[in-house]
Amino acid sequence: MELTLAGEAASPIVASRPGMAESIVPPAASISIMTVPVATEAAMSWSQLAMIAGCAPFLRPEWIFPYLQTFEPRATLEIIAVHRHGEPIGVLPLIRERSWFYGVPIRLLRGPVQRSAPDPFDIACAAADADAVAGAVWQTLRARRDWDAIELVDLPETGAGWRLMQLAEAAGYRIGRRVSRCSPYISLPAGNPDPVATLPVPTSKFRANLRRRMRNLEKIGPVELKRYPDFDSAAFEQFLELEHSGWKGRNGTSILSDSRSVAYYRSLAKAAAQNGYLAMYALECDGEPIAMHLGLTHGRRYMVPKLTYSELHHEYAPGHLLVQAVIQDCAARGFTEFDFLGNAMTWKMEWTDQIRGYHRVHIFNRTVGGSLAYRSRYSLLTRAQAIRRRLQATASTEPRVSS
Known about the structure:
- This protein is of the alpha+beta class.
- It has helices at about 35-40, 45-55, 60-70, 130-140, 160-170, 195-200, 205-220, 235-245, 245-250, 260-275, 320-330, 345-350, 370-395, and strands at about 1-5, 30-35, 75-85, 85-100, 105-110, 125, 150-155, 175-185, 225-230, 280-285, 290-300, 300-310, 335-340, 355-365.
- The termini are far apart.
């Protein structure tokens, strides 16, 4: 199998600001409340910060604003920006809205992400500035009473967002958190010409099946891996069509099933290409794609927000064959991680036992609405769920009496 590159894009260079972590001047946070169109025009400094700090794609304005413009164009956006020496060192964008929280009306601040299937979210800042940025954001938030709860979805256990939660908890504010997803990833062995052979989790039987399926697939026609670091309209359309041809199309959940989703993902792919972190892959057999990734790169990490495969070729496990080919390509290019993103599905766990936890976090203010919301979700509901589990456990252990 050969790899064909459809154009090559230079990797973005992450620069560090001199004295960024060493400065003793305390940072200060400011708040801007604006509509989505105005915020989009004012995002230049945020974009520059994201590039300098090396933020993941999901925390950059070119990723967040397409979502807002497509799905929540009337949202009120509150941007908390942290500055030092007049230069931005951190940004936390939040949607401000009135909402119902387990039967309680509240003033909610939440991350601008899809709540049902969010991307990883955090405060945008350099790792070296995480503590300082989180501290400045918290000092600003705790002085205000115009919010009842903050919701951060898919928050990683490292970073400024997690530190923000810890500061609130240490100050005696009520916190609610639960694991929102466990996302599998693979640490890639460096400098290994056959990285799949040395991965600890895939069994010898699993590897043998991959080799057998590749041999059988090659009997149909030449098998080729293509990588698209630049936006390729034809390849993007192929991805949409391939996804729509399977179960997502039948269930009405494919990207092509919703014109808004088509525009949204096209915007993301174009922005990723323009900023140097797009990595679309296609596994082709006899010139036709049978599995594809809409992938991204961040430093030496490869991530897969969206993937699809041909159900007509299911007997060859094209999704697994593409993962194998991408792992080999990434390892050859010096990448150190393959991140599946999403949930720990069974087929992903055939590749790895490494899991990265993400959390849904709520911070409740010392307001009437905040207190009632906390009790409704994390006090009364939690107790009710515990009682229900005890009753179910008791019922399952009671002997049944036959009549």
